[in-house]
Amino acid sequence: MRATKVVLPGRNSRAIRSRARKIRLLLMDVDGVLTDGRIYYVPAGVSAGASSGGEHIPQFIETKTFHTRDGLGIRFAHQAGIKTGIISGRASPVLEYRARELGIHFLRQGALEKLAPYQEILREASLQSDEVCYIGDDLVDLPPLVRAGLAVGVSGGHPLLPKYVHYVTRAPGGLGAVRETIELILTAQGKLRPILEKYIAPDRSSDR
Question: Is the Cβ–Cβ distance between 85 and 106 less than 8 Å?
Fold first, then answer.
């Protein structure tokens, strides 16, 4: 495994920019990256269990919370021509809905072992690892992280993770870490400013 010194924001920025300029695909974990890592179970009625003599068994659905700033960042990435993908160890209908809502290009759920789906996505995208950024928060993310051209760990992630990543975000998972990473990449590629100008450029129509 690669063991490199963690790069905090503002340190060794030239090396980070060099890696970020090559990125054409952003892959990320979900729990602890796109969310804060907490899982919510919401009651969904009851069912009769055959093995319990017809006793009513409470049913629950799993749900998650996502940050709107991360969602907008993903849309920025798409506008800039960067594809996105998710590799999650869990499977959740709400994640499938969120991925579809955001136009995520690749979704792999129920993948406790993440190397195989990582390699599969690269083959489908016809890309090499140095063109991939991967964002993770825990040890199960290490196989993609140690291979990705830009490996990103989120603030508040597993304490061993910084030894194996190129960059650690200021923002925690679920609170803007994905957005921060995307803006880092787009800035390095010179693509963020044109996107921002759509929001900050003055409206000249009122002058006519």
Answer: yes
